[in-house]
Amino acid sequence: MSARCADTVETPLPRLDEPGLANRVRRVLGDAAYRAANVDALLGRAPANWRREAASQALRDENDTPLATLVKLFCGGRHVAAGVLDAAIGHAGSATLEAAGLIVRNGAEARATVQLTPHGEHLYAHDLPARHHARAADFVVGPSPVARLLGALTVPASVERALDLGCGAGVLALDTLAGAGEVTAVDINPRAAALTRFNAALNGCDNVTTRTGDLFAPLGEARFDLIVSNPPFVIAPRTTFIYRDGGAPICARIVREAPAHLATNGILQMLCNWPERSGRDWREVPRSWFDGCECDAWVLRLRSQSALEYALAWLGQEHAGAPVPAAALAEWTNHLAGHDIAAVGTGLVVMRRTSGRPPWLELRDAPPLRGPAGAAIARVLMARDAAARLRDDAALLEARLRPAPDLEYQTRKRPGGNGWLASGAELRFSRGLCFAVKADPVATALLGHLDGDRSVSEALERVAAQGGVTPALLLPQLPAAVRRLLHLGLLVPAGAG
Question: What's this model's pTM, rounded to 2 decimal places?
Answer without folding.
Answer: 0.92
